[in-house]
Structures are given as C-alpha cells and as structure tokens.
Amino acid sequence: SFFVLTPDEKLVDGLWKELGEGGSVMMPMDRYPWGEKYGWAADRFGVNWQIMKARPEDSEQTIVPALMFTGAMTGKAEEAMNRYGSVFGGLETIELSHYGKEAGDRAGMLNHGRFRMGGQVFVVFDSGVDHDFGFSPGVSLQVLTGDQAETDRIWNALRHVPEAERCGWLCDLYGMNWQIIPREMLGLLNGPDREAAGRARAAMFEMKKIDIAALKAAYGGGG
Fold first, then answer.
1. How distant is the alpha carbon of residue 46 from its chain centre?
2. Distance between CA atoms of 211 and 162, rounded to whole angstroms?
3. 223 falls in which pLDDT band (50, 70, 90)?
4. Dist CA 49 CA 130 (whole Å)
5. Is 52 within 8 Å of 5 (Cβ atoms)?
C-alpha cells in the first residue's frame, strides 16, 4: 500500500473521497491510536492507500511505500528492512515499534517500522492478522543504477526467483518485486532516434538482468 501523510485535513478529506470512489474501504476514516484522522481504502484500480493526517515533522514525504509482511513472510519485516539497508546503504531508522505480549505469537514482531534509504522514506510492518495474499508483480520498486557494476551488484544481492526475472525485473527472498534499471537505459529507450530506440527496446525484451553494452550495441545497429 501507499501511505499519504499530510497535515492538511482538507487534503485528507478530499483524497479519501476521490480515491475511495468506486473502491472499497479496509479501515474507515476515523480516529485511531496512531492518528487522529486515518483511513485505509483500495481505489477503483485495486491500489491500496493509507491516508492520514500527520504531524508536520512526519510529512517530509507525502507518498510513502508501505510493505506489509504477511502469510509465510510474517515476522520478516525488520529482517527485510535491514537486508535492504545492507544492499543499498545509508539506512536510517526513523521509528520502530514492536507488538507486545498481548499479540501472542506475534509478540516482538514489527507492528510499524519507518526508515529512510536512498533519500526516500519507507514503511514496513508485520501483519497483525493472517491474510491469503502476499507481494505480487502488481507493485514493484524501481531502482535507478549508475553503471553496469552497480546494476550487477544490486541484482545479484536481491535476486531469488530466477523464473520471475525479465527485462530488469526480479523477485527477492520475501516475494517483493524490484526493477533494477540503469539510468543509461532510459536515455537509449527514449532517445531522439526512434528506430534505434526500438532496437534497444527489442533487445531489452530478451534480457533478464539489463546489459548496458548490449543495449548500446542494439541502439547503434550492431546487434
């Protein structure tokens, strides 16, 4: 899901109305222990939004990806957060809160974790109840890399499901989907020479991990 954090109460009300139209409500807009005004809804396209009136100091990033670990991945949220930090570097923990003894077998698991990585804020948490779903390719996180070496390093650190790999996409140990995309690829696919860009795009469709040199060769007409 995606958190929308804003101190603007009118914006909260407007987003709740617009995003909820034609969708479904998971948690009605109301006061909760973690916020004076909060609601969770799936919009008409099936995308989940957690809309919350937040303190100004918690609103540095309006839209925040929130990864819920459930099913077989329940209890892996904090592990995943630390693993991602080791891959991308610069992990800054903002807030960690764990379930108490009253949560039974979920005691000690993460009920809310907020961290900054790569200049962006993320939320991770273990679900307090069982669900019959997990992560899917319907939502992925895109990582823009600087060169082939960085692309290789991140790809090799995250990849876990070989059959899920295609066009720079991979699935990690927790079922989360990532797009590991060299910035240079975007220039090739969107360059002014549309015929050359088409050759590069066709080459990309045959790749798993993105090979920058092969894309350049295709763009230049060399294969």
1. 16
2. 16
3. low
4. 19
5. yes
Contact 43, 19 (CB under 8 A): yes
pLDDT of 181: 98
Residue 219 — φ and ψ, nearest 5°?
A: -60, -40
* Helix, strand, or coil (residue 174): coil
Cα distance between residue 151 and residue 222, in whole Å: 23
Rg of the chain on CA atoms, in Å: 20
- Which residues are CB-neighbours of 109 under 8 A, at least 6 positions away? 74, 75, 77, 78, 98, 99, 103, 126
Neighbours of 132 (CB within 10 A): 6
Distance between CA 203 and CA 11 in Å, rounded? 44
Residues paired with 213 in a beta bridge: none
